[in-house]
Amino acid sequence: MKGIHHVTAIAGKPARNLAFCTRTLGLRFVKKTVNFDDPGSYHFYFGDETGSPGTILTFFPWQHAAPGRDGIGVAQITQFRVPEKSLAAWAQRLSDAGVQHAAASVRFGQPVLVFADPDGMQLALVGIAGAEREPTWSGGAVAADAAIRGFHGVTLLLEAATSTAAVLAGVLGFQQAAREGDCVRYQAQAGIGGVIDIREAPRLAPARLGRGSVHHIAFRASDDREQAAMARKLVANHDLHPTGQKDRQYFRSIYFREPGGVLFEIATDQPGFAIDEPLADLGKSLKLPPFLESRRHALEAALPSLEPLP
Prior knowledge:
Elements: E1 4-11, H1 14-24, E2 28-35, E3 38-47, E4 56-61, E5 74-83, H2 87-96, E6 105-107, E7 110-116, E8 122-128, E9 151-158, H3 162-170, E10 175-180, E11 183-187, E12 195-200, E13 214-221, H4 224-238, E14 246-247, E15 252-257, E16 263-268, H5 296-302
Parallel strand pairs: 1-4, 5-8, 9-12, 13-16
Antiparallel strand pairs: 1-13, 2-3, 3-4, 5-9, 6-7, 7-8, 10-11, 11-12, 14-15, 15-16
C-alpha cells in the first residue's frame, strides 16, 4: 500500500504539544521516546489505536526552537481526514478551545477547515464522505463519529512541481489526479495518507525550518525489500542518493532531499509500535532503544517534565 507513513514536525513546549494533540485533536499518544539523533529531547508519536501507517503525526518538541518561516521548499499544510458531517462540530470544538481557524472552504471538491496548532503548524481537517466507516482511536477526547481517521495528505510549497512529481510517480506510487489554480494533486491508491498537493509559488523566498515547521514526510514501504527497490530507483532514475538504512525501532528508514528541497523519508510498515510495550499501554512510559538503555537515568533526569499538562 503506497502513501504517507508519517509526518514529523517541530514543536516548542513538550507538555503543550502533548495536550493539544491528545485533548484538542483527540489523537492517541502512541509512543513517548527520545530523538535517536538528539536523545536529550523527546520524540512524540500520535496516531490511531495502534499507530497505523498513514495516521502517525510525530514531533520533535524543542522548547527553545525559534519559529519557522513559510516559504519555498516546505510542507505547508498537513491535512487530516474526518467524517464530512463532523466538520461543523470541529469548527465549534476548535473555537471552544481558543484555536483560531479559517472559515470552511472547498478544495478539490471537498470541504476543508484550516487552522494552526499552538506552535504555528498549519493543519487542516478535510471532510470525507464515508470516513465514519474507517477505523479510528475511539478512546480519546473526540467522539468516534467525529474523530480523525488519519492523514488525508500534505501540501508542499515548491518553486515548480515537475521534478518532485517525477519522484512521486516514479518511486513513491503517486499519480497526477487533478489541478486547481496553482495547486496540482497527486494521489496514491491508499485512502489514508494518499494525497500530495503541490502548490507552485516560484516568487516566494525559501522557507526556514523552526517551531511549527514540518521537518520531514515519510512514505510507506511494506518491507526492507521494497524499500531497497525504491532506493535503487531514486539513484538510477532521479540521481538522488538516499542515506543508508537507519533503525528507528518501530520502522526502518532511509532519507533523501527531493528536488524541491523537502526532506523525504521512506519507512517500512513493520515492526510497529507494540514491539516494546503492550497495545493497551502505548504511550504510558518512556521507551528507549537498546543502545540508549544504559543512559536511561540521565536522560529521564534531563528531559522536561510533562506534568501538569496545560
